[in-house]
Each structure stands twice: as C-alpha cells, then as structure tokens.
Design goal:
By secondary structure, the chain is α/β, with parallel strands linked by helices. It contains 12 helices and 8 strands. The radius of gyration is 32 Å and the shape is extended. The N terminus and C terminus are likely disordered.
C-alpha cells in the first residue's frame, strides 16, 4: 500500500508539472476564445541587409559611365531541388536571384533599368499613354542561373559511457551559379563568372540517461549551427556582380575596391579580372622607378638588361601615351589573340581614351535631338521599342 501511494504521488507531481508547462507556454500561443486574437511574439528588430561584398560594390560608384545602361534578365533556379516542410512543398533555394543582382548593381552606382517586370511598360505602350521612344534601351544585361546543389555526405560521432556522453554531426551543401554580362547590341558575352560555396551545418550536444528506481531520466542538451542558404546565395550573387563589373573596367579602377573584400568570405583566383589584375601588378613591378633629375629614357639606356628581359606584351613606355598604355594592359588578359576588350573598356570605363568631338548640328533641329539620344544610348535604333507596333 505504501508503494502504491508513493507512485500516485510521483504521477500527480509529473502531471502537475506538465500542466503548468503547457499553461505557461500557452500564454502566448493560445487565446481564451476563438474570437480573440492571440498575442504575437516580437523577435529581433528589422535591419537592412549587409554582406561583406557591399563595400566593394559601393567602391565602384563613379567608376562607370552613367550613360551606359544595365539591366537584369532571367536568373533562374536550375537545381531541380524541392523541399517538403510542415507548411507544404517548395524550392530549396531562392527564386529571387534576379532581384538580388539588381540590388547589387544599384549599390554599385551604375545606370540601372528595371526589366524585372515589363508588363506595366508594355501595357501603357499598347494603350497609347506612353511614348515607346522615351524608354531607354539597355546596353548590357545580366543573365544566369543557380545550376548546382549537391549534398555532401557528412559525419559525426556519439559516445556514451554509463549513459552519459557527447555527440556531434556535420553536413554540407555545395551550391554553384553562373552569371554572364551580355552586350545588348550584338548579344556578345563580354563577361562571365562561375562561383561555388559550401554551406555548413553542424549539431553538437550532450545526453545523459539514468534510472531513478524504476523511473528513467533522460536529459539531452544540444545546439545546432546552420548557414542561411539564401543569405549565402545573396553573398555569392553580390560577389559575382562585382566580378562582372570588374571584367569591363581597367585593373587600376577596381584594384582598390577588390582589396576591401575580406579573404575569409570570398576569394577569386582564376577569373578573368583576377588574371588581368595579376598581369597589371606584374607589369607595374617591372617598371623602373623614375628618380629625380634622371629621365626614363636615360634609365633605359643605362640598364639594357631590363629592356632585354622585358616581356613582349608590355607596351613601350617611351612611345605610347598613358591612356593607351592603361588600355593595352587588359586588352588581352587571357592570352587569346581573338579577344580584344579595348573598345569595351573605352566605352564603359570612366577612364576611356579621348573620344573624337561630336559633329556640330544646327540648333533647333530634329536631327540634333535624334543624334543626342543616339549618342547617350548607343544601340537606340535597335531598341525593342523603336518599332511602332510590337505585334
């Protein structure tokens, strides 16, 4: 009889504990009546999104001509991976990669056109309330896809001695994407980047199990750390956008901006801009410093070994102007004789070669207005909206 009484006391105490736990937890999730709203839990404050690559993007402001228009096309999720949750099924990665790239371009300070949803512009043009000729044409646009998502087999351990011990497990996901920068006039790809990142998840804790008489006590304490998948993708897209813009400006323009990227968050070693920057630094190191009272030509004559060991692809400093030297430094970053970006850099960069003066057109003439619009937006005649009717 005494044992039964003690068991009843234990059961009643456990039931009381469960009841009070449910009551306390239900204060924020339950309402007295179904007609009364429940109290919502207030989490951390709302903040703006900042990535380690935003400083590099902001550094490019003012380095790219503001009369060169950029836009963002389709950046699709091509991984084919879905996820099943309590709320239903959905995609494992974000479907808004295009909007993230558009935000990155805006942070870089380029002249940006919104092509994410052209239905409003199309409708207003068809209704006749919008002049299609006033819509600016895109000079360059970004497209691409998130095309790989692989689950890497992880590992872990679980060790217990006398029912007490630690446990640890780790899993990883590798994500890859490709972005391209295309010339809208010729549909030629002028920049391309491929990036990948491993997203880490790990769980660790300690567990203990003991018998107190006939009652089993089991305690588990643990912690899980997982990188936010979509935030990691935003970081990749921001870095990819910076890389695309770096491929169409001289290395001297983006060298300082590139140094603001923390190496622990992103490293680019084999991209086109990385090769161009490496050759630019190598060329700068090979240049002989100019001392006071001595000209470059005299140093060249007194040190013939330097001229002898000079690479063939380095321009002659004595016969070429400074602007031409800077363009030639990245005219052929990959060693491909068919690839020439001199004209592209001259067009996009804020440090182009001197352009010929524009032809003088009599004032108050229609030809002047049309010419100015064509100069400000090259390729305007090939604009989608230049035709009177779309269909």
């Amino acid at each position: 009889m005494l044992n039964l009484t003690s068991n009843k006391i234990k059961i009643s105490s456990v039931g009381t504990t469960i009841f009070f736990s449910a009551f306390l937890s239900g204060c924020t999730g339950l309402a007295v009546s179904n007609k009364e709203p429940v109290s919502l839990v207030q989490g951390p404050a709302i903040t703006d999104i900042f990535t380690p690559f935003d400083m590099a993007l902001s550094c490019l402001k003012g380095q790219i001509r503001n009369d060169v228009n950029f836009s963002v096309g389709a950046i699709l999720d091509q991984t084919g991976k879905d996820v099943v949750t309590d709320g239903g099924t959905g995609k494992l990665v974000t479907q808004g990669a295009g909007d993230m790239v558009q935000s990155a371009l805006f942070r870089a300070g380029v002249s940006l056109l919104n092509r994410r949803d052209p239905r409003i512009i199309e409708s207003e043009a068809k209704w006749g309330i919008r002049d299609p000729r006033m819509i600016q044409a895109s000079n360059y646009y970004v497209t691409g896809s998130i095309n790989s998502l692989d689950f890497i087999p992880g590992g872990g351990f679980d060790m217990q001695i006398g029912g007490v011990g630690p446990n640890y497990s780790q899993t990883r996901i590798i994500v890859g994407l490709d972005l391209s920068l295309t010339d809208a006039r010729t549909s030629k790809v002028v920049g391309n980047v491929s990036l990948q990142k491993q997203i880490v998840a790990q769980d660790y804790g300690i567990s203990a199990g003991r018998f107190a008489g006939r009652t089993l006590l089991n305690i588990q304490i643990g912690k899980g750390e997982r990188e936010a998948t979509n935030f990691a993708l935003r970081q990749m897209l921001n870095l990819a956008t910076f890389e695309l813009l770096s491929q169409v400006v001289p290395p001297s323009t983006f060298e300082g901006c590139r140094n603001t990227i923390p190496p622990e968050f992103g490293r680019l070693s084999l991209t086109q801009s990385s090769v161009a920057l490496y050759k630019y630094k190598e060329t700068q190191q090979q240049k002989t410093p100019v001392t006071s009272g001595v000209t470059e030509s005299s140093l060249t004559k007194t040190n013939p070994s330097t001229e002898k060991n000079k690479p063939a692809n380095v321009p002659n400093k004595d016969i070429q102007p400074m602007k031409e030297k800077e363009s030639n430094l990245i005219s052929n970053p990959d060693g491909d004789s068919e690839l020439n970006k001199k004209d592209l850099i001259k067009y996009i960069s804020m440090k182009p070669a001197v352009t010929p003066p524009a032809k003088v057109v009599p004032e108050n003439s229609d030809a002047e207005q049309e010419k100015l619009l064509t100069d400000a937006v090259p390729g305007f005649e090939d604009n989608y909206w230049s035709s009177s009717q779309r269909d």
